[in-house]
Amino acid sequence: MTQAGTTAPEELVLAAEFEAPRRADWQKLVAGVLQKSGKLPEDFSGAPESLLATRTYDGIEIQPLYTADDDTVPAGFPGLAPFVRGTRPEGAVGTGWDVRVQHAHSDPAVTNKAVLADLENGASSLWLRVGGAALPLASLADALNEVYLDLAPVVLDPGADYEAATSALLDVLGEKNIPDSEVTGNLGADPVTLRARTGTAHDIAPAAALAARLAAKHPKLRAIVADGLPYHEAGGSDAQELGAAIAAGVAYLRALTDAGLSVEEAAARLEFRFAATADQFLTIAKLRAARRLWARVTEVSGAAPQGMKQHAVTSSAMLTQRDPWVNMLRTTVACFAAGVGGADAVTVLPFDAAIGIPDAFARRIARNTQAILLEETKLSGVIDPAGGSWYVENLTDALANAAWREFTEIERQGGIEAALDSGFIRDRLAETWEKRSKRLATRKDPITGVSEFPNLAEKRVEREPAPSIVDGGGLPRVRYAQPFEELRDRSDAHLAAHGERPTIFLATLGPLASHTARAMFASNLFQAGGIEPVNPGEVSDPVAAFRESGASVACLCGSDSVYAEQADDVAAGLREAGAKAVLLAGKPADSYRGISGFAFTGCDALAVLTDVLETLGVK
Predict the structure, then answer these.
(1) Nearest to 272 by CA among 221, 311, 230
(2) Where is the Methylmalonyl-CoA mutase alpha/beta chain catalytic domain (predicted)?
């Protein structure tokens, strides 16, 4: 509507009085900043933003800026092949995703109480670990007492007991008079994951035969999981996780069609499981790329277009035992990414899941994380929120291509089973874990609350031990924080035995302004290893202060100019005063005398901390 005598503009142009920005203008600004910081070599002739580019563990180069000039493969439309933008044309609008909660307690009464609390407060499906040290199959009916299984589907995690678990679940469903044609959920048969976890051969054919036998009578019930978690939890990259999961899916397709199902019927028996991490963009791209990969597999298999059923689980590898409350933030970001990426079902692991059986408070926070993202942020109110992002579309395409290379290489090895048996996959994952371990050790991949900003005064959280899912002999299962947490464990044992933590004296040199930054850096670093820093602040005689502190190891903290004047003399004085080792907070230099080691940004923090603990005699 306009006032009389006026004409509405055809287009509203904001900030029209300014010149349109050009990429060259931005590049000039980037070059200026890099030059001031000393990161732009004098003879550098390339694009300055290339110095800000980073690489993923799959070698994908991440640029600092993406524009419309960065062409990508068209992503298509939601609900249509290749399903990059989602398997349903309406997305999750109106329904949201499936809020799936995991339970593994062996006591059916405890499980039932927790299950009912979850379902009454936002959960929509159950993921039950049964058999072994988890919930006994004979107690399944008790654990599901008063659960409306026509409204809350059950996904089983039965290990090798999938035949018996299927019978137990179908008996419970029959007792509740749920029609066979309306039964949903997943029986959780996954011999490939059993092989990956245990290193022992598990034949796929019986699982395929089970799925084929139930297909006609239970058309909505999926029977098999193609799980990417074992490869992620062994320290693998996103492309390695995708490639292995797709290879597992192909192995199951072959077995299911051999069992008499068509390709379309076989694909409908499968559900894929992927890890969602705190790297939100890689998680979004991973789920989008996975659907594209599977669409290509089904296409070349001669099937009609069919989307991938996805279950995203917040990464257990990224969870910490120390400062576990920070895990709430990690899982929130991961859940956000899973929702944006289009996962059909999402499991948020409680913040204490790395410690043991989660308590009621942790389960409540995990549920409410999803409730807030679904209801309060309206995250599911938009179809494919990341669609059209130049960065996300480029990353999706690059990751899909990297994962396809992983998948085809596994196929060249004879398929997922042969690649597991030969050690090919283990070796590939070990290479990535070695790279990741170096970045974790140098804190280039920081872990808040553990390798960065630790809290030595925190009270250790205790939980009932969770049943192990690793039988040994298979792929390793890692947590990124574990090496640092093992150093903290040594510190705790020392505290229990001696009444105090191992300490290190920070010998601050020069005026306050010259040593504050490095003293703060050193304090943060040493606490990551459970070593209590003794910082006297500005003192006239650091050697005398060292004697009074009772410490036996010291670290010099000051500016480079102060080091040039005082470091040698102070280090010599500290040695005479009984210091077993003298470190220096700063870049290594041969000009310093009497220095045992250096602590600086990018140093191998794990090695420095281990050496200090060894010097202090902390076992």
Answers:
(1) 311
(2) 56-127, 136-462
What's residue 427's pLDDT? 98
Please tell me the distance from the alpha carbon of residue 276 to that of residue 319, in angstroms, as a whole number: 12
DSSP, residue by residue, 177-219 = T--GGG--EEEEE-HHHHHHHHSS---SHHHHHHHHHHHTT-T
Chain center to CA of 618: 32
* pLDDT value of residue 1: 46
Say what the pLDDT of residue 5 is. Answer: 56
Distance CA 451, CA 454 (A): 7
End-to-end CA, the chain? 78
Q: How far is CA 154 from CA 35, 157, 344, 525, in A?
A: 58, 10, 15, 46
Instruction: Using 50 as the pLDDT threshold, list the residues of the chain that sit under it.
Output: 1
| 3-state SS class at 556 | strand
Nearest CA to 163 out of 115, 223, 232, 96 is that of: 223
Element (H, E) at 314: strand 310-314
State the pLDDT at residue 174: 95
Q: What pLDDT is stored for residue 10 in this prediction?
A: 66
Count how many Cα atoms sit within 13 Å of the Cα of residue 562 in the half-sphere of its side chain: 20
| SS3 of the chain: helix, strand, coil, percent, to 5 | 45, 10, 45
pLDDT of residue 373: 96
pLDDT 10s digits, 80-96: 999 999 999 999 998 99
**CA dist list (Å): 116 to 104, 107, 169:** 14, 14, 17
Give residues with Cβ within 8 angstroms of 299, minimum separation 6.
Answer: 81, 305
